């Protein structure tokens, strides 16, 4: 039997370390892109993939991510930050989620951690003109 793992809010724990401990509910980042843009998901400055418009959110390899805490950003093709999310140890545990969305002229973009899927993608909403420029 393994010794219990104690995680405080000040500890930097990688997703790989959490998964290896058997702790359930390690945060899993997700993206749902209902826009016409190809969006880059960035974690702590590291690009983890480009995501085009989709119906079902893609699976992201948690083990390849940098240590928690995370600064998740969804960026346009030109690098403009469309939305961002701060993730701390304990966020996105079982039966809940932490997320952010942005409504652009060309659709809704969600990023979140946890097992509860938000209402995405959504039809385009009224917003500032030009917000879908790369």
In brief, what are we looking at here?
The protein has 1 helix and 7 strands, in the order αβββββββ. It is mainly beta and 134 residues long.
- Report the mean per-residue pLDDT as an integer: 75
Number of helices: 1
In sequence order, what are the helices and strands, one letter per element? HEEEEEEE
Largest sheet: 4 strands, antiparallel
Oligomer: single chain
Instruction: Indicate the percent of residues in helices.
Output: under 10%
In whole angstroms, the N-to-C terminal distance is: 52 Å
* Beta-strand proportion: 25-35%
| Cα Rg | 16 Å
Give the domain tally. 1
| Shape, per Cα inertia axes | globular
What is the tally of beta strands? 7
Which structural class do the helices and strands define? mainly beta
Low-confidence stretches: 1-25
The largest beta-sheet arranges its strands as: 3-2-4-5
Characterise this structure.
The chain is mainly β and 134 residues long. The protein has one domain. Helix content is 5%, strand content 34%. The chain contains 1 helix and 7 strands. The chain has one helix at 15-21; strands at 29-33, 39-43, 46-51, 70-75, 81-87, 97-104, 107-114. A 4-stranded antiparallel beta sheet has the order 3-2-4-5, with no helix packed on it. Strand 4 and strand 5 form a beta hairpin. The protein starts with 14 loop residues before the first helix and ends in a 20-residue tail after the last strand. The model is unreliable at 1-25 (pLDDT under 50).
């Amino acid at each position: 039997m393994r010794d219990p793992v104690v995680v405080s809010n000040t500890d930097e724990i990688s997703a790989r370390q959490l998964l290896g401990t058997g702790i359930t509910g390690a945060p899993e980042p997700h993206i749902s892109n209902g826009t016409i843009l190809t969006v880059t998901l960035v974690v702590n400055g590291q690009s983890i993939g480009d995501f085009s418009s989709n119906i079902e959110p893609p699976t992201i390899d948690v083990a390849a991510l940098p240590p928690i805490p995370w600064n998740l950003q969804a960026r346009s093709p030109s690098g403009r930050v469309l939305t961002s999310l701060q993730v701390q140890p304990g966020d996105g545990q079982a039966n809940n989620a932490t997320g952010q969305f942005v409504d652009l002229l060309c659709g809704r973009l969600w990023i979140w951690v946890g097992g509860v899927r938000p209402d995405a993608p959504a039809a385009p909403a009224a917003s500032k003109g030009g917000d879908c420029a790369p």
